[in-house]
Each structure stands twice: as structure tokens, then as C-alpha cells.
Amino acid sequence: MEALEGIDENTIQLGGRPVYTVSELTRLVKEMFDADPRFRAVYVKGEISNFKHHTSGHMYFTLKDDRSRLRCVMFRGRNVALRFRPEDGLTVIAGGTLSVYEASGDYQLYVDELYPAGLGALHLAFEQLKQKLAAEGLFDPARKRPLPRLPRTVGVVTSPTGAAIRDIVSVLRRRFPNINIVLAPAIVQGEAGPASVIRAIQLLNQRDDIDVLIVGRGGGSLEELWTFNDEGVARAIAASRIPVISAVGHETDFTIADFVADRRAPTPSAAAEIAVAERAALERDVTASLERMTHAVQKKIRQLREALGYLTMSGALTRPKDRINQWRQQLDELMYRAESSFRHNLQEKRRRLEALVGKLDGLSPLGTLARGYAICRIAATGEVVTRAADVRPGERLQVRVRDGELLCQALKAGDEIIQPSLPME
């Protein structure tokens, strides 16, 4: 067996066959892959798994089918131009060079080209970005702002030489001749397009006199409209403090910018119609409103005049003293009734009081005394004497008469006459 190129002639022999180190054998296999032209431009179809986008920018993944797996690497210089985002489960066609990674001994595909299988790369990139921004809420109707009803200045982001700017200016001037238009020229196609459109949107947002923006271009292929499917452009539209009308392509064309913008117009001309109301129509509306207001005011004046006529004919205005005199008479009558009622009540209460006083006098002990009666009490105890037997002979008594009180001594108890033992004081 002849020694292969790159192998040391002093390699150990065993039974006439060389014994290689792992590195030597791996290098031999790599040289075989590299020497075979069939492996220099290989296209492989498979499903992506274990995808990893390294911080270095390189992409590492595995292509698999139902029986085998193939390691793949796509370096940053090759993947930076991809129009879609590789992800696990996506079936792709990878083109590149098959070789061996000596450090691990694995053979792998060094990918130079990557395409979605069965779906265009641009269409796949469109759907992926659409799903991503929708998940972030950039398409949410709640965040979209209303357009100003009467803008004074319209900002336009488009190519200064395309048909779109001519259509926009023509429609704006026709609908509102004295509208202000500010153009921020932008490249709307090719690799420089996204950065140019983003810069134009940012420049117009730095001004204080712009009321609404029209961002777009005329029709074209998907590739020609791709600037408005760029993620950076979409985020610039979403971040604009000025309401944005997207006007890209023809009526059937849809871009990511259409979903992010506050309003989508099917064409640039339609965007101009949306942005600015027709002055003649506004003048007609104002005239009609003025006529309605005039009729309403005139009707109100007639009603007020009629009401004033009724008032001027009423007695309250023609003879105001009559009403005052009536009120005065009514007041006098009310006062008379109140006084009569008060006197009547007072007399009734006096009669009741006198009757009660009479009853009281009849029951009062003083009344009894006035009629010649007296009240006799035992002087020592103050008890009222109601029976002769209650008094002992010689006991001192207090006798109450009408105009005073007498101090007496009992000389007799019952039928007995008591001789006083002590002289009366």
C-alpha cells in the first residue's frame, strides 16, 4: 500500500499497513473531501434543528431527514444577507462546500447559500417579521392615532424623482391649493433604501410644523418594495410622533409598513386624498352649517319676540301696582286672621285658667279659713287635731285662723274641764 500524501514515511507499520494517529486520519479524510470537486458545490435539502445564532454572528445548525443528520455552519459574512430568519423545523435548501472540521473529526457543510424549500425567501421573511411585530403589539389598532382633520403641513417621504411624489403633490394641490408640503427625499429601493427612509422619517419628526406623514412609493415587484418590509423602517414608523399614512405600491400590494402605520392607503394618490380634505367640500359644509345656524337663530328670535309680546300684554307689566295692591290686601287679611285667631285663643285660655283657679279656691284650706273655720295642731308635734280625744288636758295647741295663728292650752278633754296648772303665756 502506497503512503498517501501528507503522511509521514516513518508511520508505524502493522502487517504491512500503516497505523495512523487520529489527527492523521482526520486530515486524510479532509483532503479527500477537499480534492473531490463533487463536494465543492453541494446542495442539500433538510429540516433545520439545533439552530444557534452565535454572538460572533455565525450560525450553527443541523440538517436532518428521516434517516440522517448533517452538521452545518454558515459564517457571518455569508448569513448577513439572508432575507429570512432560519429556525428549527424549517425545511431549507443549503448550498456550500462539504469538508471536515479537524478539531472534532466531524464532516460538515460550510453553507454559502440558504433558501426556504417550497417558499420564497422574501415571502418567508415577510411572514416571519409580520408575526414578530404583531406579537410585540405594533399592529394593535389601539395604538394607532387618528389623523388630523385639517392639517396645515403634510410631510412626504418618497423618491423625489418617482411618479409617487408627482401624484401626491397633484392631488394635494387640487384638494387644498394652499396646503404646505415638505418633502424628505429618500431612496426607496435597494440596499440603501431602509436607512434612507428611516433617516427621512426621523428628520421630519424633528420639525414642529408637520401634522401628518405620507411614507411610500409607486408599485413594483416584491424585491422592489422590500425597503418597506424592513424591520428598521417598520420600527421608525411605529416610533414616529407624527401620524403616518403608508402608501406603498398598488392596491393589491401589502407591506409591513402598511400594518404598522396609523392608516394604510392603497396608492400614493389615495394617501393624499386621505391626508387632506377637499377644500371645496369643506366650504360647502361650512356654508350649509352657516345656513342651518342662521335659520335656527332666526327661529329662536321669533319665539322670543312672541314670548315678549305675551309678557308686554300681561297685567303684571301693564299695571304692576294692581298686583302689588292685591298682595298688600292679601297680607292685611292674613294679618287680621292671625290676630283674631291669637285673641280668640288667648281668651279661651283665660277662661280655662279662671275655671281652674275657682276649683282650686274651693279646695284650698285658705278658703275654708276665710269662711270662719280654723285648723288646730298639737304644738309639740304639729299634728292636726281631728278628734277631741287626740288632745290631753293642759296640752298646748296652735290654732290657725284666717289672718294669723293662736297659741292655746286645752282646758278640757271631752266633757272634762281642766284647770290650768300654769298660767298662760
| Rg computed from alpha carbons, rounded to a whole number of angstroms | 61 Å
**How many H/I helical runs?**
12
What share of residues are in beta strands? 15-25%
Strand order in the sheet with the most strands: 3-4-5-7-6
Low-confidence stretches: 1-7
CATH architectural label of the largest domain: 3-Layer(aba) Sandwich
Percent helix range? 40-55%
**DSSP, total strands:** 15
What does the largest sheet look like? Answer: 5 strands, mixed, barrel
CATH topology type of the largest domain: Rossmann fold
- Secondary-structure element order, N to C: EEHEEEHEEHEHEHEHEHEHHHHHEEE
CATH level 4 superfamily of the largest domain:
Hypothetical protein af1403, domain 2
- The class by helix and strand makeup works out as alpha/beta
Q: Look at the structure and give the CATH class of the largest domain.
A: Alpha Beta
Average pLDDT value? 83
Q: Tell me, briefly, the overall form.
A: elongated
Calculate the terminal CA-CA distance, rounded to whole Å.
Answer: 182 Å
Number of structural domains: 4
Question: Describe it for me?
Answer:
This protein has 425 residues and is an alpha/beta fold. The protein has 4 domains: 36-119, OB fold (Dihydrolipoamide Acetyltransferase, E2P) (Beta Barrel); 140-277, Rossmann fold (3-Layer(aba) Sandwich); 314-360; 364-425, no CATH class. Helix content is 40%, strand content 21%. The protein has 12 helices and 15 strands. It has a 5-stranded mixed beta barrel with strand order 3-4-5-7-6. Strands 9-8-10-11-12 form a 5-stranded parallel beta sheet. A 3-stranded antiparallel beta sheet has the order 13-14-15, with no helix packed on it. A hairpin with a 5-residue loop joins strand 3 and strand 4. Helix 4 runs parallel beside helix 8 (268-275). The longest helix has 44 residues, at 320-363. The model is unreliable at 1-7 (pLDDT under 50).
